[in-house]
Design brief:
With 88 residues, this protein is mostly beta strands. The protein has a single domain, classed as Sandwich (Immunoglobulin-like). 12% of the residues lie in helices and 58% in strands. It is built from one helix and six strands. It has a six-stranded antiparallel β-sheet with strand order 1-2-6-5-4-3, with no helix packed on it. Strand 4 and strand 5 form a beta hairpin. The longest helix has 11 residues.
């Protein structure tokens, strides 16, 4: 399977995050974060969000956090984001 993925990446010049299980994170300033390729929401409050990843967890802390979009592998959070931290 890895040989096929490697061949596809090379052949079509695709970035590795398109076919791998790594999280893709887009942060807009300190007020919005968009996370793709997660395995689910583990915990949420107005001050923290914990996402399960394929390799560990992602913690987002701040104030007045609100989930704007939630899909099985994608989430968009708005609020005052103070910290984004990976945990194994």
């Amino acid at each position: 399977m890895r040989k096929i993925q490697s061949w596809i990446l090379d052949r079509f010049d695709l970035p590795a995050d398109v076919t791998s299980k790594v999280p893709r994170i887009l942060m807009v300033g300190s007020s919005r974060i968009h996370v793709e390729n997660h395995k689910g929401i583990e915990r949420f409050s107005s001050t923290e969000l914990w996402l399960r990843l394929y390799q560990g967890k992602l913690a987002i802390t701040g104030e007045e956090l609100v989930i704007r979009v939630a899909y099985p592998d994608e989430v968009v959070v708005e609020g005052r984001i103070d910290e984004v931290k990976f945990q194994k």
